[in-house]
C-alpha cells in the first residue's frame, strides 16, 4: 500500500513553499495522497491570525485541481487536542494498520520535535520526512530528507508584507491572494 502524507500547519496563509513541499513529497516518497491538516487553536499555542474558516478556504483554493490533495479538518473540531500524536493515532485508526503514514515537516519544526507532546510515540505511528528551510540547519537524525530547492517563504513574512501593502505575488497562488484581498485579511486594506 502506498503511503499517505500528513502535512500539518497553521497555513496562515498557505504559500508556495507549502505547495512545492507537497509536490516534492508526492514524487520523492511515492505518496498516494497528502492530507493537509490545518491546526486549530489549542490553548498551548499562539492563535493563528486568520480564522479557521479563512485558512481552510485558502487551502481549498490552493489545493484545487490536485486530486491527491485533501484537507483533513479533525484538528478544527471542538475538543480536539491539537497534538500531532493524537491526530496520527486517529488517522491510523481510520485508515487501518496497512497504510503507512508519513509526517511532512520543515527543518524548523523537526529541530524542535523533542519538545512535542509524546514525541517518542510518533515513531510507532509514522515515518517523518523533512524539508530543508533557509536559515535552519537540516539535521535529519533518522528522518527521510525530501530533496527540494529551499524556498525562502514563510507565512509570517507574507503577513508582514501584506500589512505594509508590499508585493506578495511571487509567494502564494494568485487565487489565494485574491481571497486575502477580498476578505481584507492580514491588515490588507
Ligand atoms: P509562520 O511563518 O507563521 O510560522 P510557516 O511559513 O512556517 O508559518 P506553517 O503553516 O506554520 O507555515 O508551516 C507548516 C509546515 O510547513 C511546517 O512543518 C513548516 O516547517 C513547513 N514550512 C513552511 N514554510 C517552509 C519553507 N519555506 N521551507 C520548508 N518548510 C516550510
Describe the secondary-structure layout.
Layout: E1 4-9, H1 16-29, E2 33-38, H2 52-63, E3 69-71, H3 84-95, E4 101-106, H4 107-111, E5 127-131, E6 144-145, H5 155-163, H6 174-182
Parallel strand pairs: 1-2, 1-4, 2-3, 4-5, 5-6
Helix pairs in contact: 2-6
| N→C terminal distance | 48 Å
Provide the CATH architecture.
3-Layer(aba) Sandwich
- The number of domains: 1
Reading side by side through the largest sheet, how are the strands ordered? 3-2-1-4-5-6
Would you give the CATH topology?
Answer: Rossmann fold
Q: What's the tally of helices?
A: 6
Shape: globular
Classified by CATH, the class is Alpha Beta
What can you see in these coordinates?
- With about 190 residues, the protein is an alpha/beta fold.
- About 30% of the residues lie in helices and about 15% in strands.
- The protein is built from six helices and six strands; from the N terminus they run E-H-E-H-E-H-E-H-E-E-H-H.
- A six-stranded parallel sheet has the order 3-2-1-4-5-6, with helices on both faces.
- It starts with a strand and ends in a 7-residue tail after the last helix.
- The mean pLDDT is about 95.
- Adenosine-5'-triphosphate binds next to helix 1, strand 4, helix 4 and helix 5.
Amino acid at each position: 500500500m502506498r503511503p499517505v502524507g500528513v502535512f500539518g500547519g497553521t497555513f496562515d496563509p498557505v504559500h508556495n513553499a507549502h505547495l512545492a513541499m507537497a509536490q516534492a513529497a508526492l514524487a520523492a516518497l511515492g505518496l498516494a495522497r497528502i492530507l493537509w491538516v490545518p491546526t486549530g487553536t489549542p490553548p498551548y499555542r499562539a492563535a493563528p491570525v486568520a480564522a479557521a474558516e479563512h485558512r481552510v478556504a485558502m487551502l481549498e483554493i490552493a489545493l484545487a485541481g490536485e486530486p491527491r490533495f485533501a484537507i483533513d479538518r479533525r484538528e478544527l473540531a471542538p475538543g480536539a487536542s491539537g497534538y500531532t500524536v493524537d491526530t496520527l493515532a486517529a488517522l491510523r485508526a481510520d485508515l487501518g494498520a496497512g497504510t503507512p503514514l508519513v509526517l511532512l515537516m520543515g527543518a524548523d519544526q523537526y529541530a524542535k520535535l523533542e519538545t512535542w507532546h509524546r514525541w517518542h510515540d510518533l515513531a510507532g505511528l509514522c515515518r517523518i520526512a523533512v524539508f530543508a528551510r533557509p536559515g535552519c540547519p537540516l539535521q535529519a537524525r533518522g528522518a527521510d530528507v525530501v530533496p527540494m530547492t529551499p524556498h525562502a517563504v514563510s507565512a509570517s513574512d507574507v503577513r508582514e508584507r501584506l500589512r505594509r501593502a508590499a508585493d506578495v505575488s511571487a509567494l502564494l497562488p494568485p487565487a489565494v491572494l485574491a481571497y486575502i484581498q477580498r476578505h481584507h485579511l492580514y491588515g490588507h486594506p
